[in-house]
Amino acid sequence: MISLTSYAFVSMILFSIGVIGVIARRNIFVIYMSIELMLNGVNLFLVTFARYHFNMDPQIITIMVISIAAAEAAIFLSVIILLYRSKKSLDTDIFTSLSQGEKA
Amino acid sequence: MSNLIFIALSFLAIMGGIMMLVYKNPMYSALGLLVSILAVAGLFALLNATFLFMVQIIVYAGAIMTLILFLLMFLNIKEENLPKEPKKYFLIGIGALVMIPFNVVILKAVSNLPNADMNIKEGDFGDIKPIGLQLYNDWILSFELVSILLLVALVGSIVLAKRKKTNKENS
What we know:
The structure holds two protein chains of two kinds. By secondary structure, chain A is an all-alpha fold. Helix content of chain A is 75%, strand content 0%. At the A-B interface, helix 1, helix 2 and helix 3 of A face helix 1, helix 2, helix 3, helix 4 and helix 5 of B.
């Protein structure tokens, strides 16, 4: 029998890998993917508790989280296109300005 | 049997996350994230959430990961465009140290809950029909708000992508 704690362990590990990616990496793509991994860990936790209490509300919150992640993906990736076109790099340290004309 | 499936899927999920964390090339990182997302979809199926299993595969692995991979190919990233990360493993170690107490607190809190049977149950829990009924009966307001948010994201990404051209026309 798989216990609640093992599911919680897996989802906490996924969330922690996401946080570590946001802290440690400087590539903006990897930071975005780490945020997606954090959302996945929290979704797994929510679905685990839905199964634990036999209640379907957390699964609906998970659907909301997934659709918000889709909207976030659209905005984030178009912002990345703009930044890459103006700076020709994926480094987060030089992304200090969102303006297009200004040279950093 | 389901124990073995759980162990294999959680191993794949964690390994995919670690692959995403350590590879320098963002293409390999995206493939690691894809493995992790598919493994999480399998864990959803183990938890009786059949509808979420399909949604995870279609929306995450189908739509979002395709968008990321397409964008990586579209930007034509070369080796010199990638940032140099000399202190990467040091920072990963510090991040792991920061996250340990948080994990310990949450796991201690969860392990004190009364134990319950988490195996797959027969019945329509997590199927499409009961989820749809609950979504449109109890969560209709948040459903409409999410639809407005998706419309805003659509318009916003089009405006952001077209911005350069309109700037030239104005000036």
